[in-house]
Amino acid sequence: MFCPLWLNNAKPYLAMASLQLGFAGMYVITMVSLQHGMNHYILAVYRHLIATLVIAPFALVLERKARPKLTLPIFLRILVLGFLEPVIDQNLSYLGMKYTTATLASATAIVNPAITFLMALIFRLETVNSKQVHSLAKIFGTINMVPGAIIMTLYKGPAFDFIKFHVVIHHSVTNEDKAKHWVVGTLMLLVRCWGWAGFYILQSFTVKMYPAQLSLTALICFIGTIGGAEVSFAMVRDINAWEIGWDSSLLAAVYSGVVCSGIAYYAQGAVIKEKGPVFVTAFSPLCLVITAALGSIILAEKVHLGSIIGTLLIIFGLYCVLWGKSKDKQNSITENDKVKKLPITDNAKSINLEEDMVGPARILKIPSQNPLTRETR
Hints:
Blueprint: H1 5-35, H2 40-62, H3 72-99, H4 102-108, H5 112-122, H6 133-154, E1 159-160, H7 175-180, H8 182-209, H9 213-235, H10 248-275, H11 277-281, H12 284-298, E2 303-304, H13 305-340, E3 344-346, E4 349-351
Helix pairs in contact: 1-4, 1-10, 1-12, 2-3, 2-9, 2-10, 3-8, 3-9, 4-12, 5-6, 5-8, 6-8, 6-13, 8-10, 9-10
């Protein structure tokens, strides 16, 4: 099927922007579910169970001939992936969101590109040259995100109500309960970014060894379901907590399982394979804007001054990193062009291609030596 070049080049950008819209919806729906008493450990289990049930049939049918052999090194990598994001990241994310707000949960995710960039440097997926301005911009941007995260954690400040119209939702969590664990919740949200970034880095290596992305997604979700269930049975002793009805808890499990685990893991793997892990994390600010708007309308959340200042610092640092990465790509293309244009010389004379010839007829013309000037041996 024919696809225009501009649309083909825009696919990674459209995919990541669409995912941020999906993530924003997940933050709001999950927050409603948690406010109605859903246990965050059990929600993570249901989320990845549903994702497994949805993705596995597609993987079995569409990749039955393209699926590579599952060797022990690949399985161990998938095992770690199944614990990094589905278990560690999700549980810290849900608990941190429960202690703070959905807007702050999406705001702390902006730190993820900086952490991913640092990990990419360690594993040599990114390079830095201190003599180049764009490399220094990446370093400066990464460092600039640190005070933003600190302000967001330690300074709450006055609250701003940007949107006056709200859909009233009755829930059992009071304003005092939400404010009580603000620092602890923010720290949990920041710590989970390390697990999230580690997931992206390891996924970038794993998709090269196991390119069957639907099967990889299904395996990650399946292992995440098992790992999450073990944690839930250890932390939640009330068997009634596993009951789920036709309410916001079921909606949160289905929506986050299908969109934010199944589709997201697959799309992220495809884009990481083409653009790298740092590119995938670069769209986090879009999620923050959408979540802040939805949170203000649906959840009646107020945005605090500390969150605004911290977010602005993080966004400024983020786009310093992205500007540096864009210059990296331009320099790489320029260097490749220079290599292609290097002249071939014979006795210090440049040998060029015939400019008026194109296609297969274009040949390399090497000037022969003048027989009259050839030395006689």
